């Protein structure tokens, strides 16, 4: 198995700032995207991505290629950090959870509708159990194969497919009231 990051990780571990920058450039959007979908909060997602890269810098000198691709390890670290935050947030209820405060600026009606649709999708994702949400995020939003996602979740491909099926069913049920809106308009274009 050839790891496309192996050379960069080796160089970053030796103190090469350009290699470290290349790793950030290559993986930061995916780490932030995964954390955003898992946590539903852009600021927390950025914090998770930052923590992932702090761990990358600490572990790069000791990284031994072979067992798993470096990107797989990074996704696993990101997922674990997200699970930790989700667990912590459940233990500390947020008094303002579920409240949406409108921005004082007037919005065009279409932009407002789009924002509402997106909020409903994110809310439906947030209602999924953590592992189902992770499976959906990895496969549908991170565009990973079932094999890669299963490896990151440390489950069999069959177990991943079961998580995906249950997650999709729950999303379908949770979004039934806006399904037509989400599927697309008359010309078939998806809205979300």
Characterise this structure.
The protein has 192 residues and is mainly α. The chain is 69% helix and 0% strand. The protein contains 9 helices and no strands. Helix 2 packs across helix 4 and helix 3 crosses helix 4. The longest helix is centred in the first third of the chain and has 23 residues. The two termini are 36 Å apart. The C terminus is likely disordered.
Instruction: Give helix % range.
Output: 55-70%
Average predicted confidence as pLDDT: 81
The SS-based structural class is mainly alpha
Radius of gyration: 19 Å
Major sheet details: none
Number of strands: 0
Helices and strands, in order, run as: HHHHHHHHH
Choose one word for the global shape.
Answer: globular
Report the β-strand fraction as a percent range.
Answer: under 5%
First-to-last CA distance: 36 Å
Parts with pLDDT < 50 across at least 5 consecutive residues: 101-107, 185-192
**DSSP summary: helix tally:** 9
Keywords:
192 residues, mainly alpha, globular, disordered C terminus
Write the layout of secondary structure elements.
Elements lengths: L5 H8 L3 H23 L2 H18 L10 H22 L17 H19 L2 H12 L4 H8 L3 H18 L4 H5 L9
Characterize this entry briefly.
With 192 residues, the protein is mainly alpha-helical.
